[in-house]
Amino acid sequence: MSKTTTISARVPVDIANMLKESCNKNGVNMSKYLTHIVTTPNTNVLSSGGLLVDKTELPSEVKTVLSALGGAGVGLLIYKLIKTYMPKDEFEENTIESIAVLCAFASGIGSVVAFDKLIRK
Fold first, then answer.
1. pLDDT category, 35, cuts 50, 70, 90?
2. Domain map of the chain by residue range?
């Protein structure tokens, strides 16, 4: 009885062409090439529940921008929610605006700090 089996996968044409090109460059057939890819450990990829997860670090600048954008998004969301749902018959428009801006800044800054800690883990 054979100690090997055949597996197949349906992939886009460009991926198939890329694999064929890599096989030609390395002078091996598709079976050997794919076996090598699957069995060779990659230090930048971690298996998590059967899925491959890239553990490459983001540059510090990208992490900072992502944190800032997340904080700005949360701040804007809070501002819009307060402006929309704060009772207009109980508060003047100036008071609603002041509360919305204050809450937007506070939640935005808090979110930047929280996102930054989560991203940098």
1. confident
2. 13-54, 60-119
